[in-house]
Amino acid sequence: METELSKKLGVEHAIFGFTPFPAVAAAITRAGGFGVLGAVRYTAPDDLKRDLDWMQDNVDGKPYGLDVVMPAKKAVDGISEADIEAMIPAGHRDFVRETLAKHQVPELAEGEASGWRITGWMEQVARNQLDVAFDYPIKLLANALGSPPADVIRRAHDHGVLVAALAGTATHARRHAEAGIDIVVAQGYEAGGHTGDIATMVLVPEIVEAVAPLPVLAAGGIGSGEQIAAGLALGAQGAWLGSLWLTTTEADLHSRALTAKLLAAGSGDTVRSRALTGKPARQLRTEWTDAWDDPSGPGALPMPLQGLLVAEAVSRIQKYEVQPLLGTPVGQIVGRMNSERSVQAVFDDLTRGFERAIDRITRIAGRSGPVPKEEPQS
Known about the structure:
Helix content: 40-55%
Structural class: alpha/beta
Oligomer: single chain
Radius of gyration: 21 Å
Order of helices and strands: HEHEHEHHHEHEHEEHEHEHEEHHH
Shape: globular
Strand order of the largest sheet: 1-2-3-4-5-6-8-9
Largest sheet: 8 strands, parallel, barrel
Number of helices: 14
Strand content: 5-15%
C-alpha cells in the first residue's frame, strides 16, 4: 500500500493513524503505518515530553507525527484562561448545573481538578507544545484547525518537518496550499470530531484537483481496506484514520462503559453537535448533545468558551460513567467498530481488505478489456 507520499516519509503502508493515545500511535507506526499523536489534551509541556520520550522508545526507529490545534490568525495578546472564562454567561452555567442535576451526576471530590480541559485549543498552549515537539524527530505536524500561522509553518520546515492541514472544502484546501503547507487532509462529513458539510466521496476528488500536485489524504468514513482503496482511486495518496483506533486494546479511554457504547453503536448513532467545543463536531449522540442542540436551550457558545464551560461537566460524566450523557467524538465508521482488537489486528484487516479491493478491480478491468477508440466522424 505504497504511494509517493508514504515512500517520502519512509512508511510501508499509506495509512496515517491519528490518536490521542501514545500506545496506539506507536503501534500504528510499528505496524508499518504512520502514527500521529494528538496533542490537544497536553496542557502541561512536561506531560507531552514524557509521552514523546515514551514514543521514541517504542516506535522501533520508525517515523511518527504530531497533531496540534491552533488558529491561523493570532489571538489577542494578554488574554488569560480566566479572562475567557469570565465571558461565559451565567445562564449557560445554570444550564450546565441543571442538566447535571437532572441526571444526578455527582460532584468531583473536593480539590479534585477536572481531568478534561479544552485549553489545548488556545494558541499559546499549542505553541508551548511545539517548543517541546521540535526537540524530537517528528516527521509531520498536522493542524486540525486548518493552516497553522505562517511562522509555525516556517519553523516546521526549518526542522525538516512536513506540515498537514485539514480541509472540508476545496476553497479551504486552496488557502492551505497558498499558505505553504505540504499535505492536505480532505476530511469528509462522515468523520469524527470537527467536520464540514461535504461527504468524503465528493470532497476528495475536488480537493485533489484543487491543490494538485500537493498530496492529499482521504479522511472520514474510512475503516476498511476497501475504503482505503476507494480513497486512493479518487486520487488521494493515503488515508487518515482516527475513530477506528478508539476500540483497540492499546487505547486508554478510562471507561469500560464508553468502550461498550462505542462497540454497540451503529453508523446512525452519531451527530454533528456544538455541545463539546462550540464548533460542529461529530460525536456519539447522547442526552447531553440533545440538550445542547434543543432549540429551547441556550445553545452552545463559540470556541473556546463552550469547551471551558463544559470541561468540569464532561469530567464528571466520564468519571461516574453516567450512561445517558456519556459520549466521545467519533465518526460514522463506529458501525464497524464492534469488537476490541489490537492495532496490529486492525492493520492486518485493513491490508487484507485493500488487497481484496485491488484484486476485484483488476478482475473487472481484465474482463472489460481496453476501451475502444471512437471512430472519427465524417
